[in-house]
Amino acid sequence: MTVTTAKPVTILTGFLGAGKTTFLNALIAYKKDQKLAIIENEYGQEGIDGELVICTNDNLFELNNGCLCCTLNEDFYSLLEVLWNGKEEFDELVIETTGIANPASVAAPFLTNASVPYYYKLKRVICLVDARNVEQQLQETEEARNQISFSDILLITKTDMVDTDQLSRIEKLLRGINPFAIVLSGNQSHYPFDEIYEAPRKAVMQVNLPKSANRAFGMQHQRHQHQDLVSLSFNFHEAFDLQLLSHRLTVFLNFQAKDVYRVKGIFNIKNQQQKIIIQSVMNDLAVATGGDWDDDAARNSRIVFIGKNLEPAGFEKMLKQCFYQHT
């Protein structure tokens, strides 16, 4: 089959009880003029609304609104191939993970496999965050930490059940933990779908460092901590050596992956016009090209590490060793 345009992919994650299925039903209604292919981990337990009217095979169903629905089986790659080569056309693939899943394992095929990006392009990972329970979940569960750390969009749900002060505190907490993420809020009466679908066009990779952040060798950094969960944000003016940077980060992940939930950065590489996006996916490192640097913009490299009890000194030293060296 000739590939024309890769299908956009949305991954929906969030801890148990965050409201993923309610959100997914609302998303289907919002996308009423488009056809979605939906992969559900928990199909049959808390399924999406709509009577199943056509059964194409054991795992693939068509809903009464025309959307396709299937279960996430053990062979994820085969399922992606079945959807692509199927007779039914669709506009977007939406994957709802279980409440205790690490979204990195679902995102891995789209970020680390050589061929999958020709067919599917991961556009966003949305994490639903329960406004009432997120602070306790962050203290008690690795899963909630992984989900928040990995996502591009953090959507605070059940906002009608908390007061304004609590909501502001949660927004600040989430921005501190994951500086790369866009933080939004909503509930089942209104979800900000327009903002969610505009988000990739915004500066998703922007890290907001305060003007008072430390400066050394053209570098800024910021440290945020919640319990033992720490996020370290760095901003460098110097250009990097891509080969050296990839090697150092790969070695780092091989030895430190259990304590690091997320690495994500956008880098200025010497003699390269395009931005380079580097991120961790489980224990692997994914390297991809982004858009071109604007001619009049500062080519600042920005990277975030999220994990347990992280201290900035060692990370700063490692990154500085990856600067491009003039010969």
Count of all domains: 2
Q: Which CATH-level-2 architecture of the largest domain? A: 3-Layer(aba) Sandwich
Overall pLDDT level: 83
| % residues in beta strands | 25-35%
Shape category: globular
CATH fold title of the largest domain: Rossmann fold
Radius of gyration (CA) equals 20 Å
Order of helices and strands: EHEEEEHEHHEHHEHEHEEEHEEEEH
Spatial separation of the terminal alpha carbons: 48 Å
Determine the number of helices (DSSP H or I, runs of at least 4 residues). Answer: 10
Q: Report the sheet with the most strands, covering strand number, pairing sense and barrel closure.
A: 9 strands, mixed
The proportion of residues forming helix, as a percent range, comes to 25-40%
- Uncertain spans, ≥5 residues at pLDDT below 50? 49-58, 209-217
> Which structural class do you get from the secondary structure elements?
alpha/beta
**Would you state the CATH class of the largest domain?**
Alpha Beta
Full CATH superfamily name of the largest domain = P-loop containing nucleotide triphosphate hydrolases
DSSP strand tally: 16
Give me the side-by-side strand order of the main sheet.
3-4-5-2-6-1-7-8-9
